[in-house]
Amino acid sequence: MMLVPTQLHTEVPEQSCLHLHYLNETVTVNVSLESSMGNRSLFSDLEIDKDLFHCFSFTLPRASSTEEAAFLSVQIKGPTHVFRKSMAVLVRNTESVIIIQTDKPMYKPGQSVKFRVVSVDGHLRPLHELFPLVYIEDPRTNRIMQWRDITSENGIKQLSFSLSSEPIQGLYKIVVLKQSGAKTEHSFTVEEYVLPKFEVQVKCPKTVTLLDQEVNVTVCGIYTYGKPVLGHVKLNICPRALFKTYFGFQYLYFSGGDSCEEISQQLDSQGCIIRPVRTSRDFIDWNTIHAINLQVNAIITEEGTGLEFTGTGTTDVRKTRTNLVPVKQDLHFRPGIPFVVQFRLEDPKGVPMANQHVFLHVSATNYNTSATTDEHGLVELSINTNDIVGSSFFYRVYYKEQGLCFKHYCIQEELKEAIYVARQVFSFSKSFVYLEPVAGVLSCGQMHTVHVHYILNGEVLGELRDMVFYYLIMTKGCIIQTGTHAFLMESGELKGHFTLSVPVESHMAPVTQMLIYAILPNGEVIADSAKFKVENCLPNKVGLSFSPAQSLPASQAQLQVTAAPQSLCALRAVDKSVLLMRPEAELSPSWIYNLLRMKDTDFIPHLNQWAKDPDNCYNDEYRNFDKIIHSSSKKNDKDTFRYIQSMGLNAFTNLKIRDPEFCPDYALIPEAVPLMITNDVIPVEINENPLTETVRNYFPETWIWDLIVVNSSGVAEVAVTVPDTITEWKAGALCLSEDSGLGLSPTASLRAFQPFFVELTMPYSVVRGEDFTLKATVVNYLPDCIWVSVQLEDSPDFVAVPVAKDQDSYCLCANGRQTVSWLVTPKSLGNVNFSVSAETQQSTELCGNGVAMVPEAGKKDTVVQLLLVEPEGIKKEYMINSFLCASDAEISEKLSLKLPPQLVKDSARAYFSVFGDILSSSIKNTQNLLQMPHGCGEQNMVLFAPNIYVLKYLNETQQLTQEIKSKAIGYLTAGYQRELNYKHPDGSYSAFGHQDGKNQGNTWLTAFVLKTLAQARAFIFIDETHITHAFAWLSRKQKDNGCFRSSGTLFHNDLKGGVEDEVTLSAYITIALLEIPLPVTHPVVSKALSCLNSAWETIKQGTQGSHVYTKALLAYASALAGNQDKRKEILKSLDEEAMKEDNSVHWERPQKPKEPEGHLYQPQAPSAEVEMTAYVLLAHLTAQPAPTPEELTTAARIVKWVTKQQNSQGGFSSTQDTVVALHALSRYGATTFARTGKTLVTIQSSGTFSTKFQVESSNRLLLQQVSLPYVPGDYSINVSGEGCIYTQTALKYNVFLEEEESAFALQVHTVPQTCEDPKAHKSFQISLEVSYTGRRPVSNMVIVDVKMVSGFSPLKPTVKMLERSGNVSRTEVSSNHVLIYVDQVTNHTLHFSFTVLQDVPVRNLKPALVKVYDYYETGEAALAEYRAPCSTDTEQQNF
After folding, report:
1. CA dist 828 to 766, 769, 899, 907, 1291, Å?
2. Pairing between strand 357-362 and 1421-1426?
3. What is the Cα–Cα distance from 1166 to 1172, expressed in whole angstroms?
4. Are 873 and 1296 in contact (CB under 8 A)?
5. Where is the composition biased (Basic and acidic residues) (predicted)?
6. What region does 432 belong to: left with phi over 0, alpha with psi -120 to 50, or beta?
7. CATH assignment of 321-534, given 2.60.40.1930, 3.90.78.10, 3.60.21.10, 3.40.50.1820?
């Protein structure tokens, strides 16, 4: 007999065991493997001349496929004896085990995802493995990040990437692709969440019986740093019943309001309450109901802050009063060997019941036995199998006989019993061997004693006295140990018992199997097998500890790691709150052993399941059997063949190992569970873990994420600084060693704790003139009483008056808290610092029952918090920009700053900035180019595309630093992620995305995204499928004449240019395709150029002055296509329509609306005019082979006008003008770049103020700025030296709201409008009415920006509900503003309303501003103010 694993792994040693018995001649043994890679000899011409039991080792080379079926052939040949047999095996390439660990299981938008890829072999030793690809996939299967050719050095590779501020929320996947093509995945979630400040623990019994009328429920509120919560709890207990319905078992709530019980109570000093709760058992018809489930919901409200957190618990009320749990049990019996079972008797709570009688009854023989449970509730029962007739028997185990209850209102307990079936093991000679099953889990590092029983047939043994039993031990499909047990049998000793000692080692986890067998003289093999559960221990013993275990925030601590010498250890420490949210996501030994590769497998190749052995089916001694009857009565019997098969072994043998009657039975179904009949089947899993609702978090969630190496002594010490968070930090270490392999540390804890601390309560912002109450709450968690003084640091920026006078220190005993308040009136504008300190004091006064103590550490706690103080009125900002080029003579320019009469006092300020590079301001502010929201697909691109132009420009001019590059690439990566929010399944993009199919893809935006993604490929990873999908979608929109059909909504309706939209759109798409760049010979591009040629011929025949925008696009498209003649022709036509003044050139729209009079400064040009002018600039700069000096002169004049339109951030008025203008300026900057000498810039007032700036190559990207002291005032700017510089003066001030003509009608009021309703102090509605009254039939996309009055914040669900309106595509809540995106506004009035709630009381409330404006025509705007219903001091008497 040769035993070979059914699964063979390549590149690692495998074992097969050969057993030659009763050998009487020399034989030659050959073993070969036939697969798709050819015929391979495992060992050949092995000569054997005597009986043998030996295991041979062999190694298979790596196969071409991951796994394949092969045939293993065994041939044993002698002079008179020949044995040949082939059987199927599965050859599997050895795969590494990949573990992916993230620092957290869930992330917020904008956070960094840190993760590790750990690579180990099957013995958990580190591998240096190359991964061709690692990528991140979002919930829509978009690949948002990837890395190529990553190597796990010493078994570990750490990677990270940043989520965008608006990622798609849901389940993300990290995918690691191996060289074999196999993938390993790990998921994490991205969601809006905040960590719990404290945990709500609901403790109630898991199960009680119907005899219990009440159960005790305990609810505790515990802060993450371990201290009790002071507050109030509301309990709601609702019963639901488990009914058996047509659809199976279902939980149903009771009807009527009286079934639920409500409890409201104050928490005690330990943060807990304990309350008895009725079980509702007296109201139930127990004949129809199987069980009751009590749902316990608890809401704890924190004292002082009003913060609420929830927890839940459940208790099952069941009929069953006891439970019999099988501990040791076999599914088969062997006649002559006692059948022994072990059970544990438990009460409903799982507590073992000692000194109780448990009974067993065998119906076939009417056999009864009983035994008494020990102190662990265990009882062992034995059945004499000598009296069993037949191939199986049923037995019943029970605690007490069930009583009868006929009345439906009778309450009667049910006592659990179970009925099992045991089947006979097959043996030709009625000889058997039996391995005792093992209860529980074997611990690593111990010797396990295996008990073996046997009974033998004397007639078969004959004269045999030397009896040998052979055994094999297997784990994970491989033979790891073999041995024998031989003994001399005395005459008549046919039955006995012996033991074997097996060492339990870590590599045997999680399950090890043992096969024991003997070969009898008649050629029969008797066998048994058993599975042993092994502790999930890991080979590398890792320890982790903090010193000290409790420390002050911001203090120093030591983290000690112990592991096998020279281990590489990956450390992680996270806030305990993270683990409260997702405890199941933690890495553990069980998690590692549950990986597919590490699991125990019982693989049986299908080819062998149906193998027939004619000699086995038709032996002479069974020829007269009724095959059908025999098979049906014994088909579930177990024989030696099945025991070998269950081990995952193939047996090549001519010995008797099979019950012949099993041959026709093709469906060999492995039995995994016994037949158990019980009258208490509860199919529904109840989740006993309390669910905690999360509220908020202030500090980083991951503290430590490092790799360290332990020294030769196996120790590493790491100095760490404890974060400011007052919480408990949970740390773990994963260590890898070449010798010892992988290990995980137990969780180590460090409690960052301050014996007392102070917390501030204040609004986010106030308007100058408003008063508010600043509250400082001091909490004492020392065991002793302390005297504490609380001080607010004086500042010229505010006036603070204590609310409670004549007291400057307070006595606080254990778990006490004191709130100190000041009435604050801010005096300065901008960010104002409030610094509050709480300090313990030595005092002889009595405090509590004695003298107050002073702690050795943490005597003082100081908290600094910012408050934004804003001026009254409306913010205004004007920019005065100049592009000045110095030559031999000094250049001078006048600067006059003026202010309007309706100015808000002290609100005016001005700044003068100098840049040495035309893009300096834009480079500095690539994520803040516009002071506008960017919540739709097109607006997001203003955060994305400019980074490409900046990177290209700085690269071409050799100014790119690593800092700028990494920042820009980070912005690109975030913008790429965000833009995927707006992708449709068909590959197109729209302003607000798919939105459940409500919107269709937009042609114009899809072209914009396609071009930008294609260009971004040079700097970041972009999944090619997004580019191919978008291009395919655009191609389907192309008509036969080459033009493109419009699809979706174009929110900027001024981009139609004066001809039909199709031509302008086609020109835009053609530009996008050429900028990818696609060649002009590409079929789609070639047809598109044909469309544009026809359009130009049509435009030429029309009247001038009506196609400026389209001409600008056509000129740039012709330049990109290399058609220089057409480019010049269109530019000449455009030159005739140019607006030329002050040595600058630009273009205006036809029928441009008349500018309002009375402006102090020239208003910023409309978005469309900046955009079309920028296209003309691009057309001039795209001349082939290079622009002529004349064109560069024209370009400089255009640049002079364009730069004057820039805002203070380097952007323009809207999105498209910003993107196109920055593209054009970057091209101009690269074309004209020269490393010049020094340039000196001087700004001086008419008085004494004067400041000089020097610009040179080393600081040309630097922003140099000075605050101008005199506003209003006159200044002069002087430039000397050589080179061009860019100056920018920003004038900012506030004005009071005045009625003026606007393009929108806007009405704002509150509900209620007055303070008569007492609730109006805390909550009210803001109601808005908006309509369009401008020059067009309909507006572009409109933003409604509602500022909150001080101390109030919006109720987010009521804001979100606005999106259900057909007009609103999106809402945002940011700091103290609500933004509403409206698709478009007509002359029909739109109504919006939402609710606001008071956070912090503020006196003398000032009105707040509402602004409605056209996103693309920002000059079209309307302003209105609203007041809170209770805004005056007299209305706030309950303040």
Report:
1. 11, 10, 21, 10, 19
2. unpaired
3. 10
4. yes
5. 1140-1158
6. beta
7. 2.60.40.1930
Domain with CATH 2.60.40.1940 in the chain: 198-318
The full 3-state SS of 521-532, as one line of letters, equals CCCEEEEEEEEE
Looking at the domain covering 198-318, what would its CATH class be? Answer: mainly beta
Task: Tell me if 12 sits within 8 A of 122, measured CB to CB.
Answer: yes
The string of pLDDT tens digits covering residues 1242-1254 is 999 988 899 999 9
Residue 410: pLDDT above 50? Answer: no
Q: What is the pLDDT of residues 311-360, one digit of tens each?
A: 888 888 877 777 888 888 888 999 999 999 999 998 877 889 999 999 99
Q: Which residues are 742's β-sheet partners?
A: 736
The three-point CA angle 834-840-842 to 5° equals 140
Q: What are the distances in angstroms from CA 1195 to CA 336, 1173, 1185, 1187?
A: 106, 10, 16, 9
pLDDT tens sequence across 833-869: 899 988 888 887 888 888 888 877 667 888 888 888 8
Residue bearing tokens 């009763």: 22
- Rounded Cα–Cα distance for residues 947 and 930 (Å): 14
Q: d(Cα 1286, Cα 1291) in Å, to the nearest integer?
A: 17
Instruction: Average the pLDDT over each of 233-237, 410-414, 584-588 and give the range with the smallest value.
Output: 410-414
Kindly report the pTM of this predicted structure: 0.72
Whether the per-residue pLDDT at 962 is higher than 70: the answer is yes
Q: Give every CB contact of residue 1258 below 8 A, 6+ residues apart in sequence.
A: none
Q: 1084: pLDDT confidence band, cut at 50, 70 and 90? A: very high
Q: Which residue has the tokens 């196969």?
A: 63
Report yes or no: 309 and 693 within 8 Å, Cβ to Cβ: yes
DSSP string, 948-990: HHHHHHHHHTT---HHHHHHHHHHHHHHHHHHGGGB-TTS-B-
Read off the pLDDT of each residue in 742-753 and give the average, rounded to a whole number: 90
Alpha helices (H) along 332-469 = 458-461
**Residue 1347 near residue 1297, CB atoms below 8 Å:** no
Q: Is the pLDDT of residue 450 over 50?
A: yes
Q: Are 572 and 718 in contact (CB under 8 A)?
A: no
User: What tokens does 1325 get?
Assistant: 């509605």
Q: Which two tokens stand for residue 467?
A: 């009896």
Q: At the fourth CATH level, which superfamily is domain 1297-1436?
A: Alpha-macroglobulin, receptor-binding domain (2.60.40.690)
φ, ψ at 225 (rounded to 5°): -95, 10
Contact 559, 704 (CB under 8 A): yes
Q: Which one of 2.60.40.1930, 3.40.50.150, 1.25.40.340, 3.60.15.10 gives the CATH number of domain 2-94+603-662?
A: 2.60.40.1930
Q: Where residue 458 falls among pLDDT bands split at 50, 70, 90? A: confident
* 689 — pLDDT class (breaks 50, 70, 90): very low
What is the C-alpha to C-alpha distance for residues 646 and 604, in angstroms, rounded to an integer?
8
Query: Which residues of the chain are in CATH 2.60.40.10 domains?
Result: 756-870
Token pair of 1138, please? 């140019």
Question: What is residue 1353's predicted lDDT score, i.e. its pLDDT?
Answer: 87
Domain limits, CATH 2.60.40.1930, in the chain: 2-94+603-662, 97-193+538-598+690-752, 321-534
- Classified by CATH at the fold level, domain 756-870 comes out as Immunoglobulin-like (2.60.40)
Q: Which fold has domain 97-193+538-598+690-752?
A: Immunoglobulin-like (2.60.40)
Locus of tokens 């000094």: 890
pLDDT, position 322: 79
Nearest CA among 930, 932, 962, 890 for reference residue 1242: 890
| Pairing between β-strand 332-333 and β-strand 417-424 as defined by DSSP bridges | parallel
* C-alpha angle 836-841-846 in degrees, rounded to nearest 5: 125
Tally of CB atoms within 10 A around 392? 17
